Amino acid sequence: MAGRFIAVVGPSGVGKDSLMEGLCATRSDLHRVRRVITRSPELGGENYEYVSESLFAARAAGGDFALHWKAHGLSYGIPNAVREVLANGQDALANLSRGVLQAADDTFDDLIVLHVTASPKILARRLAQRGRERGHEIDRRLARPKPVMPVGLKTITIDNSGPLAESVLAAAAALYPARV
Ligand SMILES: Nc1ncnc2c1ncn2[C@@H]1O[C@H](COP(=O)(O)OP(=O)(O)O)[C@@H](O)[C@H]1O
Ligand SMILES: O=P(O)(O)OC[C@H]1O[C@H](OP(=O)(O)OP(=O)(O)O)[C@H](O)[C@@H]1O
Fold first, then answer.
1. Which of 13, 28, 109, 163 holds its CA 20 to 30 A away from the CA of 127?
2. Looking at the 3D structure of the chain, how many domains does it have?
């Protein structure tokens, strides 16, 4: 059976990366997609492949990405290699923009959306605590209009307002109901 593409979405600071890390720690069979991003490599965070905007544009034009989009003044891509992972029966996990969910559903045979939520107050606190962006960039991220979630997609909603370990357990139980 082909694997599922699990798209983790939600506002900046909600805990998408933390939840993905927790899920991969509990499920060694889960493949975490290494995204291609034009964000400076020294900013750290997730394990991503940095490329310049011009290289990104060339790779996108050459058909290197299963999905790609722009957000926060950056370009993000999901390399085509994920198709092989799915074809081999492995589930793959990646953080996507809510704006490309419809395209993701058109691209992958079995898409599951993991929608992570928390209150705006919690988001502001977590972004400050993470420290990857400066104050004005944090304000911009918090003020960004909330993208519309497409309807009709298989969606699991995880409220990550409480302890991370609880969210990881809830997500694992929802994704692997017979196996947790
Ligand atoms: N459930 C949680 N409780 C407390 N802090 C959390 C929780 N989830 C994530 N964090 C922290 O919030 C900050 C933002 O999390 P991150 O995973 O980078 O969010 P995102 O990828 O959605 O922007 C990080 O400092 C992270 O350690
Ligand atoms: O259209 P949206 O659903 O709002 O998502 C826009 C972008 O925000 C996140 O970026 P990034 O991982 O750089 O930031 P984050 O970790 O702060 O969410 C996510 O990965 C998308 O690329």
1. 28
2. 1
Q: If phi over 0 gives left and psi between -120 and 50 gives alpha, with beta otherwise, what is residue 10? A: left
CA 18 / ligand 1 centre spacing (Å) = 6
In tens, the pLDDT along 115-151 reads: 999 999 999 999 999 998 888 999 999 998 888 899 9
- Please state, in angstroms and as integers, the Cα–Cα distance from residue 178 to each residue in 20, 24, 109, following that order: 20, 18, 22
Going by C-alpha positions, the residue among 8, 16, 72, 63 that lies closest to residue 40 is 72
- Amino acid at the residue 160: N
Tell the residue nearest (CA) to atom 11 of ligand 2.
12
**CATH number of the domain enclosing 105:** 3.40.50.300
